[in-house]
Design goal:
The complex is a heterotrimer.
Chain A (H helix, E strand, L loop, with lengths): L1 H17 L28 E5 L11 E7 L2 E8 L7 H7 L2 H8 L7 H16 L5 H30 L7 H22 L8 E2 L2 E2 L7 H22 L4 H7 L7 H7 L4 H4 L7 H4 L20 H24 L23 E9 L2 E9 L7 E5 L1 H6 L2 H4 L5 H10 L4 H5 L1
Antiparallel strand pairs in A: 1-2, 2-3, 4-5, 6-7, 7-8
Helix pairs in contact in A: 1-8, 3-4, 4-5, 5-6, 5-12, 5-15, 6-7, 7-12
Chain B lengths: L3 H15 L22 E4 L14 H5 L5 E10 L6 E11 L8 H5 L5 E4 L13 E2 L1 H6 L10 H8 L3 H12 L4
Antiparallel strand pairs in B: 1-4, 2-3, 3-5
Chain C lengths: L3 H11 L15 H10 L4 E10 L2 E3 L2 E3 L2 E10 L4 E10 L4 E2 L8 H11 L4 E2 L33
Parallel strand pairs in C: 6-7
Antiparallel strand pairs in C: 1-4, 2-3, 4-5
Classes of the chains: A mainly alpha, B alpha+beta, C alpha+beta.
The complex binds iron/sulfur cluster (2 copies).
């Protein structure tokens, strides 16, 4: 059994290099998320299982209601809202200046990118130019944040896979150790470890401290050298591969309709990356290669995320050498609460956060507070795929599939 | 064989990691070096001549996103040190429980009166332990504080092209 | 980048002018319009959201309270986006586009839960963020941020 899994793994890897990278074709008929569980006909009765909200593998406070036939899931209904904090209502009440630190708490694993999306939407509304130095700093921060976020994902995903992999917690500890060094970098830059408040409308709040670039390049080189070690612990392992390959497959068409984005979409062979199609910050000055996989399964998502880590480290290292001199703010310094008063209008800006397309749609009526501000969290869209992915799988796979989508509930529930 | 080899590989990784220096510290017992910009708690400063720096302008109270600062503005009166008339705050409280450590209050202060200190507030057993009264804020002044103060932040945010070009030019010369 | 091809379709088949914010589609033809977009290759649903406008007085004429439901779709192959919107007075439903884009299901549930427009023909229109017995829709402009709620929430 394990032998054959290993053999197919090798051949399919060889195939991946040869095959044209095409979007994942449709995989059988779509699961019906609106199935009437009462009318299900089988031997015996269905069992209803509530997984979460306090379940260690639901990555936060997600509740899954599963209808089970034996161990096979027939229907899955996710329940959200356990972490709903009314952020969008709060943003209507706060001024533009005050909003930036608030959204830090949405995707608490990648705070930098939250701020970036919001701030860029406000800048578009206001029509203010961001100086080149600030754009470079934003890009470096966003890419390092992506590495930190993916490292945490990799660690928790290894944990989700459980004891099959020589303990499971080993890889988790190693990943968190590397992530810690990135947090130290951010602490040096902004003074905070999680909720940075680095971005501000018009630029960035903190300039580079002396010696940061040297420190950053050291950390990047170390992490780059250690990712292969984690791969040797995870993807080289036949148990890991047999538990992830062919599980949780999603085809490109469904992924697009559901609005899946980022690594989840690129794992379906859809070559779409906001960093390339709508270059923001400094991405127009550097070449971005986005990782692609075409199977659309859990293993493909794993591959894409690991490849993205290498790419992000490369981008950040390449940019930090060429940070241009100049101001870090493109507008008058913000000294009062109502300093930013964009003209009436609407703007939608999206960036490629570690989890995918993080957008902000903001409507202004000319006052210092947004009239309406909607955040488009990638995790929410990823969770919407669960009713399609889970039917037909077993309970251990539910955990793996959920983990592979990398949802952050703080962001999905807002 | 194909199962054993990757497991041995993983084991080798584990053994290699045994010799690596830990990056964690046993926190309360071992000091942990913190970056100079590390920001944790707050302090109010005195001016060099011994006056309280805060002029009670309420700018920080207005910008605080979580509304945790309350400033009581006193009437204008002469400063005992300089004899000039200026504003004063007769009450200043900051509720650390709800503070999101965004540093906006530091950024907007026109007289650099409030700063963030690098030492975390000790965990307490009562809610009052996290409630910084004016007295506690002035006591915190002795603690090491982060370099960012209102005027330095605003100065670094100033996009003024003329002064920036002058400042940047010498830095570029050795490279070119 | 706004997709000019569908702007043309909107103009020719539906007689709608699309500015920067996209055309305002009448609710009777929304489903037809959405299918036309899907056929034109706009398979990716970026978001569906809504906002509430309270009744205003515009000189003599009184503008009744209304919802604006906004949509944004994308053609990933060409990198084109197309926003459009649908305005309805309070109390009138908006046709659901869940049959066109599967992802519209949760998007519409969120818009219904937080803002309030009712999506007609939605397969499963329930609250998603707030408890099922919550009263009101918090993103209404007249829903005060300090609206008192029951102590057990
Ligand atoms: S850091 Fe932010 S939240 Fe805390 S007191 Fe200052 S302005 Fe308020
Ligand atoms: S701390 Fe600064 S901003 Fe706050 S009231 Fe005093 S002078 Fe004004």
């Amino acid at each position: 059994m394990a032998m054959s899994a290993h053999a197919t793994a090798h051949t399919s890897q060889a195939k991946a290099a040869e095959l044209p990278r095409v979007p994942t074709p449709a995989i059988g008929p779509r699961a019906n998320p609106y199935l009437d569980a009462d009318s299900f006909e089988g031997e015996g009765d269905l069992m209803v299982l509530n997984m979460g909200p306090q379940h260690p593998s639901t990555h936060g406070v997600l509740r899954l209601k599963l209808w089970l036939d034996g161990e096979v899931v027939i229907k899955a209904v996710p329940y959200l809202g356990y972490l709903h904090r009314g952020v969008e209502k709060l943003l209507e009440k706060l001024s533009y200046v005050q909003s930036t630190p608030i959204v830090d708490k949405n995707d608490y694993v990648a705070s930098m990118t939250n701020e970036l999306a919001l701030v860029m939407a406000f800048e578009k509304l206001e029509g203010c130019e961001v100086p080149r130095r600030a754009r470079y700093l934003r890009t470096i921060c966003a890419e390092m944040q992506r590495v930190a976020s993916h490292l945490l994902w990799l660690g928790t995903f290894a944990l989700d896979m459980g004891g099959a992999l020589g303990g499971g917690t080993t890889a988790f500890m190693y990943c968190l150790r590397e992530r810690e060094r990135i947090l130290d970098l951010f602490e040096e830059l902004t003074g905070a470890r999680f909720h940075y408040h680095m971005m501000q409308i018009g630029g960035v709040r903190h300039d580079l401290p002396v010696g940061w670039d040297v420190h950053m390049k050291q950390v990047a080189a170390d992490i780059r050298a250690r990712i292969p070690e984690y791969e040797s612990m995870l993807s080289a392992n036949p148990i890991f591969r047999s538990r992830t390959k062919g599980i949780g497959r999603i085809d490109a068409r469904l992924a697009m309709e559901l609005g899946l984005s980022g690594p989840n979409l690129r794992a379906c062979g859809v070559d779409f990356d906001l960093r390339r199609s709508q270059p923001y910050a400094a991405y127009d000055e550097i070449e971005v290669h986005s990782a692609l996989a075409y199977e659309g399964d859990v293993y493909a998502r794993y591959q894409v995320r690991v490849a993205e880590m290498y790419e992000s480290l490369r981008i950040a290292t390449a940019l930090v050498d060429g940070v241009p001199a100049g101001p870090i703010m493109g507008r008058k310094p913000i000294e009062t609460v109502n300093a930013v008063k964009p003209p009436a209008g609407e703007a939608y800006v999206a960036i490629d956060s570690p989890r995918g397309e993080l957008g902000c749609w903001v409507v202004s009526d000319g006052s210092p507070r947004p009239y309406r501000c909607k955040l488009r969290p990638p995790s929410y869209h990823a969770l919407a795929a669960l009713p399609y992915l889970l039917p037909g799988t077993t309970i251990p796979d539910v955990v793996v599939i959920l983990g592979s989508l990398d949802p952050i509930m703080g962001e999905a529930d807002r | 064989m194909s199962v054993i080899a990757p497991l041995l590989d993983a084991l080798r990784t584990t053994i290699r990691n045994l010799g690596r220096k830990p990056i964690t510290a046993m926190h309360p017992f071992e000091p942990r070096t913190r970056a100079p910009r590390y920001r944790q708690s707050f302090a109010l400063l005195h001016e060099a001549n011994g006056d309280e720096a805060c002029i009670g302008c309420k700018k920080c109270e207005k910008i605080c996103p979580s509304e945790v600062i309350v400033v009581g503005t006193a009437a204008k009166r002469e400063s005992p040190a300089t004899g000039k008339k200026r504003g004063w705050a007769d009450d200043f409280t900051l509720d650390l429980q709800a503070c999101i450590v965004c540093e906006l209050c530091v950024q907007v202060c026109p007289v650099d009166a409030i700063v963030m200190v690098r030492v975390p507030n000790a965990p307490g057993f009562e809610r009052e332990d996290l409630f910084l009264t004016m007295k506690r804020l002035y006591e915190n002044e002795a603690l090491p504080h982060a370099p960012a103060i209102g005027s330095s932040m605003i100065a670094s945010h100033n996009p003024a092209p003329a002064s920036q070009a002058q400042a940047a030019a010498p830095a570029q010369e050795p490279g070119t | 980048m706004i997709g000019q091809d569908v702007a043309q379709i909107a103009h020719e088949r539906f007689g709608l002018e699309s500015g920067e914010l996209g055309p305002s589609v009448p609710r009777e033809r929304l489903l037809e319009f959405a299918s036309a977009l899907c056929e034109a290759g706009y398979l990716y649903l970026v978001y569906i959201s809504a906002m509430h406008h309270p009744a205003t007085k515009n000189g003599e004429a009184e503008v009744p309270a209304r919802y604006t439901v906004v949509y944004r779709v994308r053609d990933l192959a060409r990198g084109l986006e197309f926003p459009f919107r649908c305005e309805v007075p309070l109390g009138t439903g908006v046709p659901s586009v869940a049959s066109v884009w599967a992802g519209a299901d949760w998007q519409e549930r969120e818009a219904y839960d937080l803002v309030g427009p009712v999506f007609e023909g939605h397969p499963d229109l329930r609250r998603i963020m707030l408890p099922e017995d919550w009263e009101g829709h918090p993103l209404h402009r007249d829903y005060a941020i300090n609206t008192p709620h029951h102590p057990w929430r």
